[in-house]
Design brief:
The complex is a heterodimer of chains A (168) and B (309).
Chain A: E1 8-14, H1 17-46, H2 52-61, H3 63-91, H4 95-100, E2 102-106, H5 113-120, H6 131-142, H7 149-154, E3 156-165
Antiparallel strand pairs in A: 1-3, 2-3
Helix pairs in contact in A: 1-3, 2-3, 3-5
Chain B: H1 5-33, E1 45-51, E2 54-55, E3 68-69, H2 70-82, E4 88-95, H3 100-111, E5 117-126, H4 128-134, E6 138-141, E7 146-148, H5 160-165, H6 190-215, H7 219-225, E8 230-232, H8 233-239, E9 244-245, H9 248-259, E10 265-267, H10 274-297
Parallel strand pairs in B: 1-4, 1-10, 2-3, 4-5, 5-6, 5-7, 6-9
Antiparallel strand pairs in B: 7-8
The chains are: A alpha+beta (168), B alpha/beta (309).
Chain lengths: 168, 309
């Protein structure tokens, strides 16, 4: 007897916290290589290697250096937002998510460009987005579905896809 | 976006390469733009403008408030002094005064120059603005320009009554009897008032002595005029506080006669690079908001009492 059931089934589940962390780590390595590497000499020229207190003193005494560093990091963060936004908008995945098999999906309908952009604005080093540097990781830890606050706001989910062969 | 795996791979590679190129391009631009720029003149007379309140330190940022920062003005004066093509220096003053120290710094730098100097006062050249004008060799002012105001002010708002009304107590924790003298959270004692008044009077005397020396007047003459009142340009001329009525054209003519050659004026301005423009956006947004808020809440002696001329 032939039941005519599909041979292959798949379902999506909220992404595992560890996998999300690893995916983000991979993305950070990619961003470090692509965006920060060309800027490294420039940054090192402005802020010589030193202790945190040395650097704070430098920025307090030299607002020009502080502004310059802020500008460079603002620019790097904008490029980082472009990296996440375009890849997630086109493919639902950044490089890290591709390697870890994660996808960004919408809870309702199509996840448009602006919603993808909104969920990545936390990277901006300006108020009020800086608050998300603390709130987002906290939210993800205490959320049942491992969702960042940004994901809650834009109604998006990061899921992992499970495929299995139908045994019937 | 449904794409073939191969096409997807190419899109990703091209996109990432693009990000790398954009980042490299930005790094190159910043490296070029941060190269030091020095103001250069293309004339034989340098024009330096002293506009706005006079403050100590450096002027920063493209959108910075219109202030005359002493370090910046002194840098420009030294640039003009060192430039062999510059034969004389013309100062345009439109300032109500400001920091006594900054005014003195600029005045001292002005007098140390070995080239002829002339100033012309536009709307206002009062107090510290007049101090600087008096340091030049010759002063012009419009007949309606506001000049003089030879005096010192060190006033501040005192909030102790307001705090008391709101049941807020100022806890005085000091080491040194007069350490919190002038703090806005408590009224001055008689002794403190006498100390502060004494210091203001001393600065006033410095101001009078400086003007007397600069204008070849006796101390007594200047003391009579130094009530802190303003004088219109026409009065200032009669009193010997300025040399002649006039403006920029007259100042140029004066220098032409002094140098005995045709003059070409080149304005010296603080260097404002493209990066200054960009970084000042960040400055306005983050530095001023955070640091400014912090400063306004701070209760150290720095923001209690400022002495201005």
């Amino acid at each position: 007897m032939r039941l005519n059931l599909p041979r292959r089934k798949s379902f999506q589940a909220p992404a595992n916290l560890l996998r999300r962390g690893l995916a983000f780590l991979v993305d950070l390595i990619v961003l470090d290589t692509l965006i920060l590497f060309p800027l490294r000499n420039l940054i090192m020229g402005i802020v010589p290697l030193g202790t945190m207190s040395d650097n704070l003193q430098l920025f307090t005494q030299n607002p020009y250096a502080a502004n310059l560093i802020f500008l460079i990091f603002l620019y790097a963060s904008i490029l980082s937002i472009c990296y996440f936004t375009f890849l997630e908008y086109w493919f639902g995945q950044s490089i890290g998510k591709m390697l870890l098999g994660l996808h960004v999906v919408s809870e309702n309908g199509d996840l448009g460009f602006w919603r993808v952009l909104a969920r990545n604005l936390f990277l901006l080093p300006v108020i009020p987005f800086i608050l998300l540097w603390l709130l987002d990781p906290l939210w993800i830890v205490f959320s049942k579905e491992n969702k960042r606050l940004s994901d809650v706001i834009v109604k998006a989910n990061v899921v992992e896809q499970h495929n299995f062969e139908q045994s019937l | 976006m449904k794409t073939e795996p191969r096409a997807k791979l190419w899109i990703v590679i091209v996109f990432l390469a693009g990000l790398f190129l954009v980042s490299s391009f930005f790094a190159g631009c910043i490296a070029l733009l941060t190269a030091t720029e020095t103001p250069s003149a293309s004339g034989n007379v340098a024009l330096i403008k002293i506009h706005g309140p006079i403050v100590s330190g450096e002027q920063s940022g493209f959108f910075a408030e219109d202030v005359a920062a002493s370090d910046t003005i002194i840098d420009l004066l030294e640039t003009a002094e060192e430039d062999p093509s510059i034969k004389a220096i013309m100062i345009e003053i439109n300032s109500p005064g400001g920091s006594a120290v900054a005014s003195d710094e600029i005045g001292t730098a002005m007098k140390a120059l070995n080239k002829p100097t002339v100033s012309y006062i536009r709307e206002v050249g009062a107090s510290g603005g007049y101090w600087i004008a008096s340091s030049t060799d010759y002063i012009f002012a419009n007949r309606m320009s506001v000049t003089g105001s030879i005096g010192v002010i060190g006033s501040y708002l005192e909030f102790s009554g307001l705090l008391r009304d709101w049941n807020i107590t100022y806890e005085q924790l000091i080491s040194g009897e007069h350490k919190d003298m002038g703090i806005p959270f408590k009224p001055l004692t008689k002794e403190e008032r006498a100390i502060l008044q004494g210091e203001l009077d001393r600065i006033h005397i410095f101001f009078i002595e400086e003007v007397a020396r600069n204008r070849n007047l006796t101390k007594e003459q200047v003391k009579e005029l130094a009530t802190g009142r303003i004088y219109l340009g026409i009065e200032a001329e009669e009193l010997g506080l300025i040399d002649a009525l006039g403006g920029r054209r007259d100042a140029e003519e004066y220098l032409r006669q002094q140098l005995n050659e045709t003059i070409t004026v080149a304005e010296l301005e603080p260097p404002v690079s493209f990066l200054d423009f960009l970084s000042s956006v960040a400055e306005q947004y983050s530095f001023n908001m955070g640091y400014g808020l912090g400063e306004s809440l701070k209760t150290t002696e720095q923001n209690q009492l400022s002495i201005r001329t």
